[in-house]
Amino acid sequence: MRCVILAVALALLGSGASLPAGGKGDFKIEEGYTSLFNGKDLTGWRLGKVKLDGLTETANKKWHVESETIVIDGGGGGDIYTVQEFNKDFNLRLEFRAAPKADSGLFIRGPQLQVRDYPTVGPYPKVKFNKGDWNELDVTVRSGVVTTTVNGKALTEKDALELTVKNGKPHATLNGKAVDVKNLSINVGAVALCKCNGEVIEKAFKVGDKGGIGLQSEIGKFEFRRIRIKVLD
User: What domains are defined for the chain?
Assistant: First the structure.
């Protein structure tokens, strides 16, 4: 039986048949998800206004595809974005590998989530991280979310904020202590819950209401793979 399986595998390789995108055949995309990277080329992505369909590298050769991975050599070269926009709620999953001190980013409908060699250059130095190996990002975007901040810090479900108006003037207390209403902000919009290797790095990262997904070219070598998305009800 082992000989038969080996013979079939060799025959497929010899015929030029391709393996599933995202890890030499050992990865299967989850039900309900759509791949944003086919593992072969940059179809579905653009650099500026230039669509990259069918190309394995950008004209400046900074971005290229190898071993079912999108690779950016660093040092500029422009950022790439999905041609398609994702204006509904969604869950995005991908894996990245960062060279030492490398710095990249994930654009989520405009705003950039820092994606880096976190233990070395932050901004999440304490997150569980596989240095020199693959790490997973999990981003869930929800619209119409109310976020409240005081002094720039987002409140949690454990905080108690009270706002009253007396003689036409507003007064606010947070957890029983007075706070300046000038430092109070309440917004309704789309936010993203962002996780790295299962740990929360951003609870309510503000994102745009419309737009696509982007990958940044900045410092050092960076690799991305297994990029897939699921539109949520």
Answer: 20-141+194-231 (2.60.120.560)
